[in-house]
C-alpha cells in the first residue's frame, strides 16, 4: 500500500515560513477546509489572545504522535522569526503541504487502501508512518513529508474512532483516526456532505 502522493513542488514553498504570515498561501483552499483550520487555531489559542505559542504547537504534535522536540518546533518557529503564530501565519504554514495534492480520486483510492473497515477512518499511527517513511516509486515526482507537513495534514481531521460497516475491526482498534472522507471533501469544497456520509456509515 502506498500513501497519497504529495508533489515535491510543495517543498519550494517552504521559504514562505520565514515571513511574518499573511502571504495568502491559503487562498486556494476551500472554505470548509479554511473553517476547520480556523477552528483548530481557536482550540490551540486557549487564552483567546489571537496567537499561539510553541507550547501549544508542541501539545498538538504530541497528540498526533509526532516529534515535538525543539528541533521539530523550529519548522513552526524559525530562529529569527516571531515567538508566536497569529492566525494568518498559522494558515500559511498549514496550507503549504496542501498546495500540490494528487487528484481527489487518486487521494481517495490511496486512503481507501488503509481503510480496513470501510468506515472512512484510518488509524493515525499507521497513516503517519506511511506518510513519513514510504519512499517514492521510481520516476515519481515526490519527496517524503516532514513532521510539520504531516501534522498540518492530519491535525484538523483527527478524532476518536466510530464504528464502520465492518464493526469488528473498528471495535478492536484503539487510538485516534484520520477521517479521510472529510479531508477529501474539504479540499474539494464539500466538507458538509462528507460529514453526513460518514455519519450514515457510522450509524
TrEMBL record:
Domain of life, source organism: Eukaryota
Residues in EF-hand domain copies: 102-137
One GO MF term attached to the UniProt entry: calcium ion binding
Gene3D superfamilies noted in UniProt: EF-hand
Repeat keyword on record: yes
InterPro entries, per the entry: EF-hand-dom_pair, EF_hand_dom, Myosin_RLC
Keywords annotated in UniProt: Repeat
Name by which UniProt lists this protein: EF-hand domain-containing protein
